[in-house]
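Hi U.,

Before I forget, here's the chain from the pilot set. I'm dumping it here mostly so it's searchable later in email.
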Amino acid sequence: MTPTPRVRIYRFKLAGRRHVRAPASWRTASAQARPPPTPADAYLGPMKLPAPPLRLDWRFALGQVILIALGVLLGLAGTAWWSERQDREREHLALGNALDVARLNERRLRQAIVEDSTSHFVNRLIIRDLPCIPDDSIVTLMSLGSWYSDGRPLISPFTALLQTGDLAHVRSAPLRAMLASYLGEMEARVHAVNELNGDWIQLGGTNAAATFRIPRLAPAALGAAERNDPALWKLVALRASLGSNMVANERIMLRFTTDLRKALEAELHVASVPLPVPRILRDSY
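Structure:
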């Protein structure tokens, strides 16, 4: 009868459980065949894995470069588009204002040409037909010939267009040149008209109408007195000369203004607006 092996019981206070160590005869064959532990199998701490070799993924790098370049290009394109849109808005606003001023100048010049041409015609009529004019009509003709209009165009908007730099936003090179030349021509013509106005005021042309309307004498007696006045011929001749120069300057300014107005309408694709027919302002006499 084989004796029953004794079992050594080790009591450990680990988690409150009893641990039993079985004898060597109870172990399996695989466990008995296992070689004893060697110093090499002892615990040496955390396992240190070797660092992987450095590999450059050129496809990933190329994709990153392309993505960054695409983002930069899209940003630049958006900035350029927004800047171009703002420039076009400034251009449209500047050209629209220039067109309004050109139409106003054309209307004023047409009116001034009609009125100054009438005064010039009256002065020439007095010079040519003074011996045949009745005495009571001389006063009326002298009043008509002494009046003149202010045909100076507005140039301050075009000066502001050049000084503020908005002229650079105009894409059409011929239109930019036309605007600059128009401003220079108008400044020169306005200076000439100012000199003519000074000469006209010096002659007393602005006060002549009021002077002849003073009821000091009957129209026939006043006309007879003016007919025999030796200074009458000189005064009327000077008025006729100044009126001719005034009308000539106004016609030149009207031609430049009309050309500019047509160019602006073509650039903005705007239909022409019919201008009112000039008329003689009888209330001014």
